[in-house]
Amino acid sequence: MTRRSRRAGEPFQPDLLQGQSIAVVNAAFLADAERWRLQFRCDDCANRRADGGCLYDWPNDVMRAEPFAVVGADGTALFCRAFEPDGS
Ligand code: SF4
Q: What is the SS3 assignment for 20?
Protein backbone atom coordinates (compact mmCIF):
# COMPACT_ATOMS: atom_id res chain seq x y z
CA MET A 1 0.00 0.00 0.00
CA THR A 2 1.24 3.45 -0.82
CA ARG A 3 0.42 6.48 1.26
CA ARG A 4 0.77 10.13 0.42
CA SER A 5 1.92 12.43 3.14
CA ARG A 6 -0.32 15.35 3.99
CA ARG A 7 1.15 18.78 4.35
CA ALA A 8 -0.32 21.43 6.60
CA GLY A 9 -3.10 23.33 4.88
CA GLU A 10 -3.70 20.74 2.16
CA PRO A 11 -7.12 19.10 2.06
CA PHE A 12 -7.23 15.43 2.97
CA GLN A 13 -7.20 13.22 -0.09
CA PRO A 14 -7.67 9.50 0.53
CA ASP A 15 -5.46 7.11 -1.40
CA LEU A 16 -8.13 5.63 -3.63
CA LEU A 17 -5.66 3.68 -5.73
CA GLN A 18 -3.85 1.78 -2.97
CA GLY A 19 -1.24 0.53 -5.43
CA GLN A 20 -3.64 -0.30 -8.25
CA SER A 21 -3.96 1.43 -11.60
CA ILE A 22 -6.66 4.03 -12.23
CA ALA A 23 -8.23 1.76 -14.86
CA VAL A 24 -8.47 -1.16 -12.43
CA VAL A 25 -10.03 1.00 -9.70
CA ASN A 26 -12.55 2.53 -12.10
CA ALA A 27 -13.51 -0.87 -13.54
CA ALA A 28 -13.91 -2.35 -10.04
CA PHE A 29 -16.12 0.56 -9.00
CA LEU A 30 -18.38 0.14 -12.03
CA ALA A 31 -18.67 -3.60 -11.38
CA ASP A 32 -19.61 -2.96 -7.74
CA ALA A 33 -22.03 -0.20 -8.75
CA GLU A 34 -23.83 -2.58 -11.08
CA ARG A 35 -23.75 -5.44 -8.58
CA TRP A 36 -25.17 -3.35 -5.76
CA ARG A 37 -27.30 -1.11 -8.01
CA LEU A 38 -25.67 1.97 -6.60
CA GLN A 39 -27.24 5.29 -7.45
CA PHE A 40 -24.69 8.09 -7.46
CA ARG A 41 -25.10 10.02 -10.71
CA CYS A 42 -27.05 13.09 -11.75
CA ASP A 43 -29.88 11.05 -13.30
CA ASP A 44 -30.69 9.67 -9.84
CA CYS A 45 -30.10 12.89 -7.93
CA ALA A 46 -32.75 15.17 -6.44
CA ASN A 47 -30.62 18.17 -7.48
CA ARG A 48 -30.70 17.59 -11.23
CA ARG A 49 -32.46 20.01 -13.53
CA ALA A 50 -34.73 18.94 -16.36
CA ASP A 51 -32.07 20.01 -18.88
CA GLY A 52 -29.51 17.67 -17.27
CA GLY A 53 -27.70 20.40 -15.39
CA CYS A 54 -27.33 20.75 -11.65
CA LEU A 55 -29.47 22.95 -9.41
CA TYR A 56 -26.26 24.01 -7.66
CA ASP A 57 -24.60 24.73 -11.00
CA TRP A 58 -21.88 22.19 -10.32
CA PRO A 59 -20.01 21.51 -13.54
CA ASN A 60 -21.37 17.99 -13.87
CA ASP A 61 -19.93 16.81 -17.18
CA VAL A 62 -17.75 14.34 -15.27
CA MET A 63 -20.78 12.89 -13.48
CA ARG A 64 -22.60 12.43 -16.78
CA ALA A 65 -19.68 11.03 -18.81
CA GLU A 66 -19.75 7.52 -20.25
CA PRO A 67 -18.12 5.47 -18.97
CA PHE A 68 -18.14 7.05 -15.53
CA ALA A 69 -14.76 7.32 -13.83
CA VAL A 70 -14.72 7.45 -10.04
CA VAL A 71 -11.00 8.32 -10.06
CA GLY A 72 -9.54 10.93 -12.38
CA ALA A 73 -6.21 10.86 -14.21
CA ASP A 74 -4.50 12.52 -11.23
CA GLY A 75 -5.80 9.91 -8.77
CA THR A 76 -8.36 12.15 -7.08
CA ALA A 77 -12.01 11.28 -6.58
CA LEU A 78 -14.49 12.57 -9.16
CA PHE A 79 -17.50 11.58 -7.07
CA CYS A 80 -20.07 14.30 -6.47
CA ARG A 81 -20.28 14.95 -2.73
CA ALA A 82 -23.58 16.82 -3.15
CA PHE A 83 -25.49 13.82 -4.52
CA GLU A 84 -28.90 13.35 -2.95
CA PRO A 85 -31.00 10.33 -3.94
CA ASP A 86 -34.24 11.39 -5.61
CA GLY A 87 -36.11 8.40 -4.24
CA SER A 88 -36.94 6.86 -7.61
S1 SF4 B 1 -25.59 17.55 -6.92
FE2 SF4 B 1 -24.02 16.36 -8.01
S3 SF4 B 1 -25.02 14.45 -8.60
FE4 SF4 B 1 -26.61 15.95 -8.08
S5 SF4 B 1 -27.20 16.92 -10.02
FE6 SF4 B 1 -25.62 18.18 -9.06
S7 SF4 B 1 -23.69 17.47 -9.94
FE8 SF4 B 1 -25.23 15.88 -10.32
A: coil
* C-alpha 36 – ligand 1 centre gap (Å): 20
* pLDDT tens readout for residues 1-48: 445 555 677 777 778 888 999 999 999 999 999 999 999 999 999 999
DSSP assignment of 39-88 equals: --SGGGBTTB-TTS-BTT----HHHH-SS--SB-TTS-B---TT--B---
pTM assigned to the model:
0.77
Rounded to the nearest whole angstrom, what is the distance from the C-alpha of residue 62 to the centroid of ligand 1?
A: 10
